[in-house]
Amino acid sequence: MSEETDFASKISSEAPWWSKAPIWLAAGIVGVPSLIAIGAGYFVAHYVTTSLNQLNTFSQSQLYLLNEHMNDQKHNFSVVLRFIDDDLKVQYRTCLNASKTDEQRAACITPTEREQLYGIKKNPRTDPPATD
User: Fold this and answer.
1) pLDDT, tens digit, for every residue of 54-65?
2) Overall pTM surpassing 0.90 (yes/no)
3) Closest CA to 127 of 68, 85, 87, 93
């Protein structure tokens, strides 16, 4: 009976053969070098994915900075255009006040005509209408 008891304790303490079969089957079919290559591929894929996420974040921050720069440039350009417009209006009024005859007054160029001569195009949505 001791042989039966030993056999029973051995069988109950070990994992059944069918539980180990997938591991040995995978190692036999795929092979240990292939398992190492699969593990290395997973590591590389994880590293590349992390790096791509980091590059995506950097690209988004650069786009944000570029957008802010463009908005600042548009604002500065509109300020310069308003300054030019005001300066042309002052020059026109000065010309009218300094004129003594109707011919001299007719020779004064309106700010709108000057802007057209300079090639300044106004945006009707953002620029106020001209008050010559």
Assistant:
1) 888 888 888 899
2) no
3) 85
